[in-house]
Design goal:
By secondary structure, the chain is of the alpha+beta class. It has 4 helices and 7 strands; from the N terminus they run H-E-H-E-H-E-E-E-H-E-E. Keywords: Ligase.
Length: 144
Amino acid sequence: MVLLRTSRETREIIANQCNLSASNIQDAFPCTPLQEGLLALTAKRSGDYIARYVYNLRPDLDLENFWKALKAVVSATPILRTRVVDLADHGLVQVVTDLNPVAAFKPWIGTLKEYLDEDRAVGMGLGSIWRKTAFNFDLALILT
């Protein structure tokens, strides 16, 4: 925990920017110059450098086991639970949380285009979850 050793106040500032409890924060450390550059470019043109993958799932897929496996991967992979915040004294900082965003996946009803348009409009900003999961009842999975 490079930054979290600095002060309890820093931890609280990070938690507020992420809209989380300070107890949900596992680690925090500076972004690399490459990450900072990509974030600056994305801020100028929302949607750039954001990947969206759409997968068609087999109808016979055991969804319960699939979600368990996906949750396990996210739990074991800190970058999938990482957000970025801007701290006055430290600049852009990566924040690893203990929250598993797969646990709150978003089911949707409607066309794939409608979902993707809505997802693009919402975007991904500082402090927000950077990996989203959605599926519909036609067994399409979207990872953003």
